[in-house]
Amino acid sequence: MHRRRRSALLLTAAIAAAAPLLAACGNDAHPGAAAVVGDQRITVAQLENRVDEVREAQRAAVPDDTQYQQVVARTGTLTRDTLHGMVLDRVLHRAAEDAGVTVSRKEVQGMRGELEKQAGGPGQLETVWLQQYNVAPERLDDNLHVQLEAQKLAQSLGTDTSRPEFWQALSEASEKLDIDLNPRYGAWDVRKSSRVDARTPWVREIAQADAQQSA
Predict the structure, then answer these.
(1) Backbone angles phi, psi at 23, to 5 degrees
(2) SS3 call for 194
(3) Using CA atoms, how far apart are residues 96 and 93, in angstroms rounded to an integer?
(4) Residue 187 lies in a domain
(5) CATH number of the domain that residue 44 is part of
(6) Cβ atoms 188, 181 nearer than 8 A
(7) 194, 186 contact by CB (below 8 A)
(8) Confidence (pTM)
(9) How many domains does the chain have?
(10) Is residue 106 domain-resident?
């Protein structure tokens, strides 16, 4: 009896641990969604595609199998981090929109040109962004757009991106968007405008109860 219950618990724990990697359909309210931000869905397929882009870029940059596995190990939270970025981008865009802030393609290209000079060329800049921020080369312009949007939003608020006033604007935008994350990826903290891991105290409680009964 005890062996069967322990096996069931271990199986449940294994499923919970593997949940972020499974290509299941999401929660009941939003099948197939990794997150819903306002009236926009971020599907599991879209999230997986973004992660694949980064992995492919990492593989191209590190052809040695052993070194590549080390890179993968160092970026083990890539899926959740990527979803966090995808959601935060939308939050930032909403906050910028509310503040009347816009970013032009010319501004993005200007910023990219300056960064390429500092990095030593286009390829070097792509490498830096991939290694430091897990941004695939094809997403570099999108990421720079976000960086500029954040800077201009902070300027419009008379502050900078490290100050509470800036994050308060993002918090207000998060609340307006009513963000709903698939539980397998955690939850969205409106106050912090950040993804947080979901707490599952029931796993610990069941494990403790099982241990006590087996003693």
Answers:
(1) -95, 50
(2) strand
(3) 5
(4) yes
(5) 1.10.4030
(6) yes
(7) no
(8) 0.77
(9) 1
(10) yes
